[in-house]
Write a structure and sequence with these properties.
Elements: E1 2-6, E2 9-11, E3 17-24, E4 33-38, E5 45-50, E6 57-59, E7 67-72, E8 77-82, E9 91-99, E10 102-105, E11 109-113
Parallel strand pairs: 2-11
Antiparallel strand pairs: 1-3, 3-8, 4-5, 4-9, 5-6, 7-8, 9-10, 9-11
């Protein structure tokens, strides 16, 4: 199982970023996917999740209405569109999958929201 995140960077408050996670080594279209984040000195927190067919999406209250999770099962990719970014969104963002009773994580991509 391999998960590779990309798309992070430095953005001003109010700006937008789109994160991407490329998945391989498992049946992507059969499983739910999630995004998590971890700020400096903070616990890792769940941000958003999407069901295998994208019929169900869920969000943490802190990002609801600003972030959108989506997936492309033909490309084995999951995305996180982040709008109206705030300094408190600064963190390393990880995608995650539960496969074979084990959680797998990518290496993360840094998102920094600062003026």
């Amino acid at each position: 199982v391999q998960l590779v995140e990309s798309g992070g960077g430095l953005v001003a408050p109010g700006g937008s970023l789109r994160l991407s996670c490329a998945a391989s080594g498992f049946t992507f279209s059969a499983v739910s996917m999630s995004w998590h984040r971890q700020g400096l000195g903070k616990e890792r927190e769940w941000v958003a999740g999407i069901s295998s067919t994208a019929g169900i999406t869920k969000y943490a209250d802190s990002v609801k209405g600003r972030f959108t999770i989506s997936r492309d099962n033909a490309k084995n990719r999951v995305y996180l569109q982040m709008n109206s970014l705030k300094p408190e969104d600064t963190a390393v963002y990880y995608c995650e999958v539960l496969w074979g009773s084990r959680h797998y994580w990518g290496q993360g991509t840094q998102v920094t929201v600062s003026s």
